[in-house]
Amino acid sequence: xxxxxxxxxxxxxxxxxxxxxxxxxxxxxxxxxxxxxxxxxxxxxxxxxxxxxxxxxxxxxxxxxxxxxxxxxxxxxxxxxxxxxxxxxxxxxxxxxxxxxxxxxxxxxxxxxxxxxxxxxxxxxxxxxxxxxx
Length: 134
Fold this sequence. Notes:
By secondary structure, the protein is an alpha/beta fold. The protein has helices at residues 8-16, 33-46, 52-64, 73-86, 92-103, 112-118, 128-132, and strands spanning 2-6, 25-30, 67-70, 106-108, 124-125. The chain has a five-stranded parallel β-sheet with strand order 3-2-1-4-5. Strand 1 (2-6), helix 1 (8-16) and strand 2 (25-30) form a beta-alpha-beta unit.
């Protein structure tokens, strides 16, 4: 079974486009992913990109996605080290990379900035890897 770390933009992309994750793929994410997705949906409502009803419906579908949620002391320590090594001011991106390093085959993200930060730190796979199970 292939294991891929995903971030909130990627999870929202999957739901928004009705994309089904291949049965042989396990999604892995920080334990904060659902809150981060809800925060992004709230921002979309605030700027008029989504209605409140549509945002809440998307969030419901996000909560139905099967994901292994992680956020233990070991991954947070690794996230801290990654952030310090790269001079980052927050742990958000580092946590995704730490979990990838410790628990997954690769990171899959639709966020070009996170993909850029991950280069040379952890393997990055294309979105299609979630869909075709490779």
